[in-house]
Every structure is written in structure tokens, then in C-alpha cells.
Amino acid sequence: MKAVAKQDGDDYLITGTKTWITNAGHASFFLVFANADPSKKYKGITCFLVDRNEEGVQVERKEDKLGIRASSTCPVHFENVRVPKSAILGEFGKGLAQGCYDNAIPHLQERKQFGSRIIDFQGIQHQIAQAAVEIEAARLLVYNAARMKDNDIKYVKEAAMAKLYSSQVATNVTSKCVEWLGGVGFTKEYPVEKFYRDAKIGKFEKHHFF
């Protein structure tokens, strides 16, 4: 990934070009993946929500496609586009499910009900274990698709599988995290509600057919 997000105080400056962006000509916002810490390689990749009206965002010429011509497919160029830290979806270098999970666990370790920590209840432990398994499985699907691409192996099916399953896991795990925190999970006091809101888009975005 060549797009980078350089930290500048409390903001990030995004520079790079994204190609073949579906409906770019009509979009009001873009979900932009950029590497905010290239020294960490893929672990520095972070997702930002970017308003198309921000200075430095340029939607370029619509591709003259063979079909699906009603959908505008365009390159989008970002030149030192300034976005705040609050524009990060999930957490820096983490996926939505992992970030939400990591925020929820400390609360379960501290909060007590009926004289015991919430995390000590077996029913909760089963749910935590299931969430951890799903997150790891989604991560391995993504890594496998990336491995195949790096080795010039056909990877369209595997990439589609990774996209589909990862979006399902993000929705399921973030929803569970909100439930684990109980009432406070439904408030903005903890970030899990934001993870849950941000994860929902994965259910609506297109998936490839295979």
C-alpha cells in the first residue's frame, strides 16, 4: 500500500491515489486505507473517513467502462488531506472487531456483579472465546488472500471470502461487546458503541460474486 497518513499534531495528512473506486463521482465521503506507520508495515494500515470536500481531495476522470456505465468509477487522489484523529475508524492499526474487543475486555476484568468479576462468569467466557476465534479466523482469511496476491496466485475468491466473513465478524463481535458492557455499552462513555456503529457499513457494501 503506497497511500500514507503522516501524523501532524492531532491530525493526519493523507497522500496517495486510489484507483477504480466505485461510485466515486457521487460519493460524499470516502473510506480511505492508508499506512500511518510504514515502519510497522501492514500493521500500520489504518482506515480514515474523509469528506470529499476536504482540501486536497480530487476525484479524477470517470473510467470509460465496457459495462455498468451508470456507476461512476474514478481514481481519487489525496494530496496532504488533513483529517483529525477522530476520522479514524476503529483504532490505529487495528480492525474494528479487534479494537472493540480490546476495549471491552478490561471493563469485564474490573466490573463486578454478584461479588464476581463479569469475566469470571462461564457464560461470558464462552462468548469471549467465540469472539476471539472469529477474529483470528477473519485475520487469517485476510492474510491468506494477501499471501496469494503477493505470490501472483489467483486470489479473487479468497479476497471475497475474507471481505464477507470479516464484515460479519466485525458486526457480530462489536454487538457482543456492547452487550457485555451492559448499560454503559449503550453510551458514549466507552468507545465500543462507536465501533459497533462503524462496523455496520460492512453489511451494506458490495461483495464480489464467486
TrEMBL record:
<protein>
    <recommendedName>
        <fullName>Short/branched chain specific acyl-CoA dehydrogenase, mitochondrial</fullName>
        <ecNumber>1.3.8.5</ecNumber>
    </recommendedName>
</protein>
<dbReference type="InterPro" id="IPR006091">
    <property type="entry name" value="Acyl-CoA_Oxase/DH_mid-dom"/>
</dbReference>
<dbReference type="Pfam" id="PF00441">
    <property type="entry name" value="Acyl-CoA_dh_1"/>
</dbReference>
<dbReference type="Pfam" id="PF02770">
    <property type="entry name" value="Acyl-CoA_dh_M"/>
</dbReference>
<comment type="similarity">
    <text>Belongs to the acyl-CoA dehydrogenase family.</text>
</comment>
<feature type="domain" description="Acyl-CoA dehydrogenase/oxidase C-terminal">
    <location>
        <begin position="95"/>
        <end position="202"/>
    </location>
</feature>
<comment type="subunit">
    <text>Homotetramer.</text>
</comment>
<dbReference type="InterPro" id="IPR046373">
    <property type="entry name" value="Acyl-CoA_Oxase/DH_mid-dom_sf"/>
</dbReference>
<comment type="pathway">
    <text>Amino-acid degradation; L-isoleucine degradation.</text>
</comment>
<feature type="domain" description="Acyl-CoA oxidase/dehydrogenase middle">
    <location>
        <begin position="3"/>
        <end position="81"/>
    </location>
</feature>
<dbReference type="InterPro" id="IPR036250">
    <property type="entry name" value="AcylCo_DH-like_C"/>
</dbReference>
<dbReference type="GO" id="GO:0003853">
    <property type="term" value="F:short-chain 2-methyl fatty acyl-CoA dehydrogenase activity"/>
</dbReference>
<comment type="pathway">
    <text>Lipid metabolism.</text>
</comment>
<dbReference type="GO" id="GO:0005739">
    <property type="term" value="C:mitochondrion"/>
</dbReference>
<keyword id="KW-0560">Oxidoreductase</keyword>
<dbReference type="InterPro" id="IPR006089">
    <property type="entry name" value="Acyl-CoA_DH_CS"/>
</dbReference>
<dbReference type="InterPro" id="IPR009075">
    <property type="entry name" value="AcylCo_DH/oxidase_C"/>
</dbReference>
<keyword id="KW-0285">Flavoprotein</keyword>
<keyword id="KW-0274">FAD</keyword>
<dbReference type="InterPro" id="IPR009100">
    <property type="entry name" value="AcylCoA_DH/oxidase_NM_dom_sf"/>
</dbReference>
